């Protein structure tokens, strides 16, 4: 393990498995009807470009549930979370420029995958979506804050986010920095107030706060971002260091979204840890696919500047494994994530199973 590991370890550590196995793509071949991925562009039915395997999204076998409308599920939850975020960001008692900056990034759209994950994990545990909505909103606030900070010139210096000017381009660097800080603080206030109002037991809400706090700080995003910046242009950065970076910068917040949702929904410790493992693999999968798309996609498709990682000399999965090797590894992570759902009620697990497939086969 190289220099990044001495900075600390995540609360839950997992090793990369089978990175050099090139034949494992057969793990995800299924002799079932292939549906259209919700993320695919028109005319690209059944075959994804991010991972070279087949996928079933709506219907089919594998525990997903025949006739499950994942696209409708994702769309409905995205709208519900968007509306709740809009309400949460109304009437903020602060300068208008700060409020506008916060709303600009939070309400810019996006797939709302992390909030959907929190909701699906809550439902997996038998809880209602209404109880987890404050957590879902907080996760999106934390994620958005990280994006605002990530784009600032002293970090990744990106002028484009979600297809329009980054926050610091639109509002200036000082306001963008403070908008990110304000969103982080608001996220925890929102969880505390919202869970209390929804009747969530205080011990569950507190555990959710602990999960989110660890994911946002030294146990997650902050640590991963520092390690990521320190590794720029360093040819010695290998797979162990890359795992550390993305287990913190990307996967840890995905874990926190899922685990917080499950805890608020009433999951026991054993169930919550299975959800954690599922979400950890899911978070790494999200990053592997991002790395592949950074190579294969365009700025117009991605809504952010394509090719920046290579230009900055960053270690990425395609760079270390090759493009095909990265796709194979994504297939392995998808299989591992889905395996963690085996044993749960199939109907309740269907959204999480389809969410994993959606992340694997998205094209932007």
Automatic annotation (TrEMBL):
Pfam families in the record: polyprenyl_synt
Family per similarity comment: Belongs to the FPP/GGPP synthase family.
GO biological process, alphabetically ordered: isoprenoid biosynthetic process
Segments traversing the membrane: none
Cofactor(s) it depends on: Mg(2+)
Superkingdom of this protein's organism: Eukaryota
Protein name listed in UniProt: Geranylgeranyl pyrophosphate synthase, chloroplastic-like
PANTHER family per record: FARNESYL DIPHOSPHATE SYNTHASE (PTHR43281)
InterPro entries the UniProt entry points to: Isoprenoid_synthase_dom_sf, Polyprenyl_synt, Polyprenyl_synt_CS, Prenyl_diphosphate_synthase
Keyword Transferase: yes
GO cellular component, one term: cytoplasm
Pathway per the UniProt entry: Isoprenoid biosynthesis
PROSITE patterns per record: POLYPRENYL_SYNTHASE_1, POLYPRENYL_SYNTHASE_2
Keywords: Isoprene biosynthesis, Magnesium, Metal-binding, Transferase
Xref: NCBIfam families: FPPsyn
Lineage: Eukaryota, Viridiplantae, Streptophyta, Embryophyta, Tracheophyta
Keyword GTP-binding tagged: no
A single MF term (Gene Ontology): prenyltransferase activity
């Amino acid at each position: 393990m190289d220099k990044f590991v001495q900075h600390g370890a995540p609360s839950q550590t997992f090793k990369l498995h089978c990175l050099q196995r090139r034949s494992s793509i057969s793990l995800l071949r299924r002799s079932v009807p292939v549906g259209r991925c919700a993320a695919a562009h028109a005319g690209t039915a059944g075959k994804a470009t991010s991972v070279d395997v087949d996928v079933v999204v709506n219907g089919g076998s594998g525990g997903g549930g025949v006739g499950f409308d994942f696209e409708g599920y994702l769309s409905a939850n995205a709208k519900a979370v968007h509306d709740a975020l809009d309400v949460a960001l109304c009437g903020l008692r602060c300068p208008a420029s700060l409020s506008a900056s916060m709303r600009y990034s939070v309400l810019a759209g996006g797939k709302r995958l992390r909030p959907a994950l929190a909701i699906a994990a809550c439902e997996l545990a038998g809880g209602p979506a209404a109880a987890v909505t404050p957590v879902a909103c907080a996760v999106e606030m934390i994620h958005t804050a990280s994006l605002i900070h990530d784009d600032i010139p002293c970090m990744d210096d990106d002028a484009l986010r979600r297809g329009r000017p980054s926050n610091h381009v639109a509002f200036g660097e000082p306001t963008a920095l403070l908008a990110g800080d304000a969103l982080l603080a608001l996220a925890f206030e929102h969880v505390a107030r919202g869970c209390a109002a929804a009747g969530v037991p205080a011990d569950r809400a507190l555990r959710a706060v602990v999960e989110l706090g660890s994911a946002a700080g030294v146990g997650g995003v902050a640590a991963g971002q520092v390690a990521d910046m320190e590794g720029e242009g360093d040819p010695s950065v290998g797979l162990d260091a890359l795992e550390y970076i993305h287990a913190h910068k990307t996967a840890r917040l995905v874990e926190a979204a899922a685990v917080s949702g499950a805890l608020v929904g009433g999951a026991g410790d054993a169930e919550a840890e299975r959800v954690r493992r599922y979400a950890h693999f899911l978070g790494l999968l999200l990053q592997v696919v991002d790395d592949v798309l950074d190579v294969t996609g365009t700025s117009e498709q991605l809504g952010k500047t394509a090719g920046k990682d290579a230009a900055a000399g960053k270690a990425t999965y395609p760079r270390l494994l090759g493009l095909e090797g990265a796709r194979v590894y994504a297939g392995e992570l998808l299989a591992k994530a889905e395996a963690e759902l085996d044993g749960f009620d199939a109907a309740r697990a269907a959204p999480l199973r389809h969410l994993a497939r959606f992340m694997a086969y998205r094209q932007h």
